[in-house]
Specification:
The chain has about 280 residues and is of the alpha+beta class. It is about 20% helix and about 35% strand. It has helices at about 10-20, 45-55, 70-80, 180-190, 200-205, 215-225; strands at about 1-5, 35-40, 95-100, 110-125, 125-140, 140-155, 175, 235-240, 245-255, 260-265, 270-280. The chain is globular and about 50 Å long. It comes from Amycolatopsis orientalis. Belongs to the enoyl-CoA hydratase/isomerase family. This is MaoC-like domain-containing protein.
Length: about 280
């Protein structure tokens, strides 16, 4: 695999116009780019970490939440997916799942090497899906891995999955998700996709209102387990129906084996937003 070394984090302000122009071209191709983006000497800004923790519901700490390094990886992910040889335009892709594996706690004062690549292009019943894999390394040893699965709709050929009748579980907490959470998370994440910012811009993309970022819902769910998480664990989620803003959502957790399972549902209708698990390694 070819390696593209970056000496600074890509500018998101220049990548969004590039993504918009990319949406004008046709998607196609059956090959993901064989390039891995690498950036060494990645450090955490304490003020940015504090802002992220506040928006997502984590306590202030020198240990990074397991979802925080996704903030470090996001600009490289954007850069990778807006390259000319990427087979799909960035706008219109759906983030359907995310799995984060933390091999040990990560501290604020550490320096990391960050690697980002795309792999495993495969058919899906609604189109094609693939993984964007991001890794943090210390002394050439992976300490954190993030696998984000994306779906490009159209021309589906994968095997259809049967779905039974949904039954909403009894909630253990009710989330009151404010109308501005998309804008607040966008400030710390850099993910300024218009579907998350305002109802007017979201409606232009077919949504009845702005929707919460999937990675915010995952982070806010993980914050519910603070103080109980092992040092090494995997947190895996599948994103279901979007959380419209503002809204009330019902959060449910239960013990399962060596960890927990959790779900987030619409508090008024039997519509699931997210399902996930935390498993000790």
């Amino acid at each position: 695999m070819a390696v593209k070394e970056l000496h600074e984090s890509p500018s998101l302000s220049s990548l969004y116009p590039k993504a918009l122009l990319g949406s004008l071209r046709k998607s196609g191709g059956n090959t993901l780019p064989g390039t891995e983006f690498v950036r060494e000497g990645v450090v955490v800004d304490p003020a940015h970490l504090a802002a992220y923790n506040q928006v997502c519901g984590f306590r202030l700490d020198d240990v990074l939440p397991a979802t925080y390094p996704h903030m470090l990886a996001f600009p490289l992910q954007m850069a990778l997916m807006t390259e000319r040889d990427f087979p799909f335009p960035l706008l219109g892709m759906v983030h359907v799942a995310n799995r984060i594996t933390q091999h040990r706690p990560l501290r604020l004062d550490e320096s990391f090497t960050l690697r980002v690549r795309a792999e495993e292009l495969r058919p899906h019943e609604k189109g094609k899906q693939f993984d964007v894999v991001s890794e943090l390394l210390v002394n050439d040893s992976p300490v954190w891995t993030d696998v984000s699965t994306y779906l490009r709709r159209g021309g589906g050929s994968g095997e259809k999955t049967s779905r039974g009748q949904l039954a909403q579980p009894a909630p253990t907490a009710i989330w009151h998700v404010p109308a501005d959470i998309g804008r607040r998370y966008a400030e710390v994440s850099g993910d300024r996709n218009p579907i998350h910012l305002h109802a007017i811009t979201a409606k232009a993309f077919g949504f009845p209102a702005a929707i919460a970022h999937g990675m915010w819902t995952k982070a806010h769910a993980l914050a519910a387990f603070e103080g109980r998480l092992p040092e090494a664990f995997a947190v895996d989620v599948k994103f279901k129906q979007p959380v419209l803003l503002p809204s009330k959502a019902a959060f449910t957790t239960w013990s399962e084996g060596e960890g927990w399972a959790f779900e987030l549902w619409n508090a008024r209708k039997p519509k699931p937003h997210l399902e996930g698990s935390v498993v000790a390694l």
